[in-house]
Design brief:
Elements (H helix, E strand, L loop, with lengths): L1 E4 L7 H9 L4 E4 L1 H6 L5 H8 L10 E3 L3 H7 L12 H5 L1 H12 L3 H36 L4 H8 L6 H21 L9 H4 L3 H18 L8 H18 L4 E2 L3 H16 L7
Parallel strand pairs: 1-2, 1-4, 2-3
């Protein structure tokens, strides 16, 4: 099993059980979960975050950056192409470096603080993306009729017209993300689009938008909350490319399952 780990799960005893249960149980770090470990007091939090996985470095995989993975997955690819070989092989050394930094190594402490600053800038940039996401949620809401919105909000059984509209919405969002992404210069082929990260992210983001709509919209919702949602949907999208997600966030788990349902039943994609 290869499962993407959410930052909120790194210190959970269930992660230790997962790793101990079978040496084939692997933990996958994506760039967002790595950067979230540097939040707050990085010199303290990074050591705490990796305390469990540090004991099982051979069961850890580190993914390439999202921009690289977007490009890789727009064509036919294998899972091995998604991993950052240097960071994966060097994970044990990284854990040792964090331990030395905690013991006072000034050079390594300075490196961790630089990573913390990079992480802050990254999440600040995503905060700006949250404004666009809020606009996108409102635009998606306007595509539904009053009856369809009522069905979404009351969790009624959706008719075929509503489901068809949702499928079209996911496809439209995937096309928009491809057009807007700096690393995408052409739409992927029909054979490759369903297995691409950008399509999985579009499905995750769209279903998240429907969740907000079903709960009445974005009144009084802070941008920081939407930013966190954007980060979470990146982890969910990655999880659909592997064997699942390790998280304590019920919303992430539910959207992961909803994405798989759409992939299997609406887009006829078999989970990897």
């Amino acid at each position: 099993m290869k499962k993407v780990v959410d930052a909120n799960y790194l210190s959970d005893p269930k992660l230790l059980c997962y790793l101990e249960a079978d040496s084939e149980n692997k933990v996958i770090f994506c760039d967002h979960s790595c950067m979230e470990a540097y939040k707050g007091n990085a010199l303290v939090n990074i050591k705490k975050s990796i305390e469990i996985v540090a004991g099982y470095p051979n069961q850890v995989f580190v993914l390439k950056g999202t921009r690289d993975i977007v490009k890789v997955t727009l064509a036919a690819y294998s899972q091995d192409q998604l991993f950052d070989v240097d960071q994966t092989v060097g994970f044990a050394n990284f854990c040792n470096a964090v331990s030395l930094a905690a013991q006072g190594d000034t050079f390594l402490r300075a490196q961790i603080l630089r990573h913390q600053e990079n992480s802050k800038r990254h999440f600040q940039n995503i905060l700006r993306d949250a404004e666009k996401f809020a606009e996108g949620i409102k635009a998606i809401e306007e595509t539904f009729t009053p009856k369809q919105l009522r069905d979404l909000r009351t969790e009624a059984i959706l008719d075929s017209e509503t489901v068809h509209k949702m499928v079209k919405g996911i496809l439209w969002l995937a096309a928009f993300l491809c057009e807007d992404h700096p690393s995408v210069f052409a739409l992927p082929s029909a054979e490759n689009v369903r297995e691409s990260y950008i399509f999985r992210y579009a499905a995750s983001g769209y279903l998240l938008a429907l969740r907000w709509i079903s709960k009445g919209g974005l009144a009084d919702v802070r941008l920081e909350k939407l930013r966190n949602d954007i980060v979470d949907m990146g982890c969910v999208a990655y999880a659909t490319l592997f064997d699942g997600i390790l998280t304590n966030d019920k919303k992430m788990q539910q959207i992961y399952e909803e994405v798989l349902f759409f992939l299997e039943h609406a887009f006829q994609v078999t989970e990897k």
